[in-house]
Specification:
heterodimer; A: 253 residues; alpha+beta; T-fold; eight-stranded antiparallel β-sheet; two-stranded antiparallel ribbon; 11 strands; flat; B: 191 residues; Sufe protein. Chain: A; six-stranded antiparallel β-sheet; 5 helices; 9 strands; 23% strand
Chain lengths: 253, 191
């Protein structure tokens, strides 16, 4: 069963394998999918910097937003600050051009993680939830295989750079081809080198998404930085067409 | 970094950093497996190529002027490497062509995105998809137009090449890929 809908300025897809639908029942899965969609839409409204009525915009303007919302805003800001400190500024909580608070680089991954949590709480063990090219993949789509996540080759028009076979794993990609502009070179780094896209595979989508942003900003040093976090691996595509990865790789043959 | 994954010692990180050059442009790739402990993840190098004339949107697109790009394709002349084949595409001369000699064209559902509808059609032969191509996508705002000029031929190729290996998701792709997948799924559901 699939649910496809627009959210956060992009599209989201939630897929549940037929075996899981058969196990849980069509109506039950349908309800859980709608709950997950509601969660994504709620977080979009809560953290949109483009919407004057969003909670974070209202909070910045000095309005009261209530304890639950405030707690979540503080959590997201904490995480962004930790990421900024740990990445030596490759990840920024404020847009360096405008100085405005910008949590968008973290919130998409965070929201996918929350949606995945809703799906798990709803009793699902196998599902895929993706927003705009980043996703979390739980369980298996069929008994005999893992979720096949193609890593887009950002420069070759017809290229699949690699296929990640994921189970209970997040896959997130940053690169010049994606929509959005939350990527700035790290302090002292020479641009992004010849890295054209940076994919991170790991247990948590919020971190995988942020790490992909950081790894891309770090360029040549990104892969080593990501490898310093247990369970997280990179797939790096370079402008010469080569693909490097420290994840367990199996050739297509 | 309480909320983050436990950091491993730098030496251990370097020791475990089995950097493999997958070299998708290298035809001499063989079977190999990295000595990595990531049980949850595997990645497979795979390269797809296409002959320019079968997927060039420049040659086959027409602007309907309505904010949606549409195109009509003649025969089923799609080509790509079969799944699992790594080819050297650097000179464009080593492409394995898979030609759909017969088959019927099936049109998927039109899927609405916030920028406009996305719709794909597939050539189907004996219940199997030979080739997939988008027939409509949003083209109204410059950003969508720019992205889709890149994304649509790419998605066509992924969808066509992955008919042997089910691709569940594309990481790094744009919003279009989800609508594309949804339209394609409506075709798969009918096979």
């Amino acid at each position: 069963m699939r649910l496809v809908f627009p959210v956060m300025g992009t599209m989201s897809t939630i897929s549940v394998p037929e075996v899981e639908v058969a196990r849980q029942g069509h109506a039950a899965v349908d309800l859980v999918l709608r709950e997950a969609r509601r969660e994504l839409e709620l977080l979009d409204k809560r953290f949109s910097h483009y919407n004057d009525a969003s909670d974070i915009t209202r909070w910045q303007a000095g309005y009261s937003v209530g304890p639950d919302t405030l707690a979540e805003i503080m959590h997201v800001l904490d995480q962004c600050q930790e990421l900024e400190a740990e990445s030596d500024g490759a990840f920024r909580i404020k847009n360096p051009r405008t100085g405005a608070l910008d949590t968008a680089g973290y919130v998409k991954g965070y929201a996918i993680g929350r949606a995945a949590e809703v799906l798990r709480l709803g009793g699902l063990t196998s599902f895929a939830v993706g927003v705009g090219g980043d996703g979390y993949f739980a369980g298996r789509p069929a008994e005999d295989r893992r979720w096949n996540v193609a890593v887009q080759h950002p420069e070759r028009r017809y290229g699949v750079a690699a296929v990640v076979a994921a189970t209970d794993a997040a896959v997130a990609t940053s690169g010049s081809a994606e929509r959005g502009d939350h990527i700035w070179p790290a302090e002292g780094a020479e641009g992004t080198g010849d890295v054209v896209s940076f994919t991170v595979v790991g247990p948590r989508i919020a971190l995988a998404d942020a790490f992909a942003t950081i790894g891309f900003a770090m360029g040549q040093d990104g892969m080593r930085w990501v490898a310093g976090h247990e369970g997280y691996h990179s797939v790096v595509v370079r402008s010469d067409g080569s693909v490097r990865s420290d994840a367990a790789l199996v050739s297509a043959a | 970094m309480a909320g983050f994954a436990r950091r491993v010692a730098p030496a251990a990180a370097l020791g475990g950093l089995a950097v493999i050059i997958v070299g998708v442009a290298d035809p001499a790739i063989g079977n190999w497996r990295a000595n990595d402990d990531a049980a949850a993840t595997e990645a497979r190098a795979s390269e797809v190529t296409a002959s320019e004339d079968s997927t060039s949107s420049d040659a086959t697109t027409t602007d309907s002027g309505s904010g949606t790009h549409t195109r009509n394709r003649g025969g089923a002349s799609g080509s790509s490497t079969s799944d699992g084949t790594t080819t050297d595409s650097s000179d464009g001369g080593d492409t394995t062509a898979v030609t759909c000699t017969s088959g019927q064209s099936v049109t998927g559902d039109s899927v609405m995105t916030r920028w406009g509808p996305v719709q794909v059609a597939a050539t189907v032969d004996n219940g199997a998809i030979c080739e997939v191509h988008a027939i409509a996508w949003p083209d109204s705002d410059p950003r969508s137009s720019q992205i889709n000029a890149y994304a649509i031929p790419y998605l066509d190729e992924v969808a066509t090449a992955s008919r042997g290996t089910q691709i569940d998701y594309v990481s790094g792709a744009t919003y279009t890929s989800d609508a594309y997948a949804e339209s394609l799924q409506s075709i798969l559901d009918r096979l």
